[in-house]
Amino acid sequence: MNDDGMDYDGMIFRPPSEAYSILLQVTVGCSHNKCTFCEMYKEKQIFKIKSDAQVMKDLAFAARYHRRTKRLFLCDGDALILPQKRLVTILREIRRQLPWVNRVGTYANTKSIAQKSVEELRELKDLGLSIAYMGLETGDDDTLSAIKKGADANRMIEMGKKIRSAGIKLSVTVLLGIAGRERSMIHAQETGRVLSAIDPEFIGALSLMITPGTPLHEDYQSGLFSLLEPHEILKELGTMIAATHLTGGLFHANHASNYLPIRAKLPEEKAATLELINAALQGEVALKPEHLRAL
User: Among residues 150, 166, 168, which one has the least CA distance to residue 111?
Assistant: First the structure.
């Protein structure tokens, strides 16, 4: 690394809400990397942890050139999997070298959350780790197994509640259309049930877009998997929101992949949101054209 920029190994991914964050790569790839729908880390077949020396060089660069950026995101797919001592060292250095950063985020999965005790998670929270992003995708056990997510619904609930109990805010991602046509309503209902049990601060719903090079794309090409039509996606979304009961959170479905942008506070705006979805199903609200959708 020199003054040309921070060191990045391969393509870097981050949640939409981290678009203006400092992106600090501490791992390369995803510790799971088996989900049938995801191609994000397929080029990085071997998961590895970057050296402390490289991470410190990147932090020094950020301290010099990103003095007005208030958020930092730890990349790649699952930075929480880092051993506790290494994560603690990195978070302390972020606080020391970038004292203006007021939020640090990371991706997390059930495996990485399970490897940390609640006390360790609280330590990370006290050192600045304030939000984690967990891909639930679905609350339907059959679909979780089919997409090789690596955890069932009960495990998702357990680990989601665990990280929340440490005071770390949780953003859960769900994937509309991932169960196909036959299990669409089961997927919607079960996902709402699991989301209600976890009760996260944020939910982000994306609509499935099949990408070449994934096992799901092969199933799609062979006719084993069918994509839902826009109105079926909307029905699934409406059923999911109706089945989701939060004590207070935001349900986002305004990703570039979605046909109908939604940003709703739950429970206050649930009824109005369901009315909007119904209006769209009746053709009274225009949907995003297919050519404008994107991952």
Answer: 150
CB atoms inside a 10 Å sphere around CB 272: 10
Say if CB 210 and CB 216 are below 8 A apart: yes
DSSP reduced 3-state for 68: coil
The three-state secondary structure class of 134 is strand
Mean pLDDT, rounded, of the chain:
94
The answer to whether the CB of 63 falls within 8 A of the CB of 96 is no
**C-beta separation of 138 from 174 below 8 A:** yes
Query: Is the whole-model pTM more than 0.90?
Result: yes
> What is the homologous superfamily of the domain 16-292 according to CATH?
Aldolase class I (3.20.20.70)
Residue 73's CB is within 10 A of a number of other CB atoms, namely 25
Task: Name the stretches of the chain with pLDDT < 70.
Answer: 1-4, 295
Read out DSSP for 215-228?
HHHHHHHHTSS-PP
* Residue located via tokens 């440490």: 166
Cα 79 to its chain centre, rounded Å, is 13
CB 30 within 8 A of CB 40: yes
Q: Is the dihedral of CA 185, 292, 270, 196 positive or negative?
A: positive
* Dihedral sign from CA coordinates of 19, 21, 22, 27: negative
Instruction: Look at residues 204, 208, 250, 262 and name the one whose alpha carbon lies nearest to residue 233.
Output: 208
pLDDT tens figures, 31-90: 888 999 988 887 777 889 999 999 999 999 999 999 999 999 999 988 999 999 999 999
| Rounded distance between C-alpha atoms, residue 73 and residue 68, angstroms | 15
Question: How many CB atoms neighbour CB 92 within 10 A?
Answer: 12
